[in-house]
């Protein structure tokens, strides 16, 4: 099977993310409401999530009709080309619902199961992040890279919380034990943004349990191409069990500590 040109995949990902971001930014109705719930009554999906995913899949499908899809709001197509698009049309739905600015559009392209292209559009910050495997990470066309590692006690770490009650209880317990050991903890509400912020030096590390491929595929590649380390439990890759990203020198002790604290289970 012929490998798709990465320049083509990147151009499609960036443009699809830009169009979806513009739809979400300008099309948000004043009376925006919840269209459905996912894992729990506080894990919501709005009409705009659905509209953005439809825009993305139709745009990509128009250019590459043989590709597959995996999308948060239900897009699931096998495809025959060896390329699969992993889409979060609105990462940070609750922020968007409440009018908070930390939301994004995340699109990754996998080639034969490996993420090779990622784009994250952050409309309210007027930022577009992108990466191609082996070619570095970029914000608005300018190369970015992660920070130099501070002492662990001075690390600024971001995290997120799930929507299942038992999971949230354990996540709070982990954060309570981690907080005294680092500079501070941030919780912005968009995994894709947090991963990009590790890539460009705004955070020293980020971790979360319960992410899905559409949450971390694009942002994870961008973080890696920004010279951060990305994984899960020690020896494992990022997964629903645990996703950790951080600058070298902070990533390793954080990953070990999170494993010891049981951040990987509910």
UniProtKB/TrEMBL annotation:
SUPFAM superfamilies linked: Carbohydrate phosphatase
Protein keywords: Hydrolase, Magnesium, Metal-binding
Binding site for Mg(2+) 1: 72, 88, 91, 215
PANTHER family, per database record: INOSITOL MONOPHOSPHATASE (PTHR20854), INOSITOL-1-MONOPHOSPHATASE-RELATED (PTHR20854:SF4)
InterPro entries xref list: IMPase, Inositol_monoP_metal-BS, Inositol_monophosphatase-like
Chemical reaction(s) catalysed: a myo-inositol phosphate + H2O = myo-inositol + phosphate; L-histidinol phosphate + H2O = L-histidinol + phosphate
Organism field: Wenjunlia tyrosinilytica
Enzyme Commission number(s) of this protein: 3.1.3.25
Entry protein name: Inositol-1-monophosphatase
Amino-acid positions noted as binding Mg(2+) 2 in the UniProt annotation, renumbered to this chain: 90
Requisite cofactors: Mg(2+)
GO molecular function (one): histidinol-phosphatase activity
Pathway involvement of the protein, from the record: Amino-acid biosynthesis; L-histidine biosynthesis; L-histidine from 5-phospho-alpha-D-ribose 1-diphosphate: step 8/9
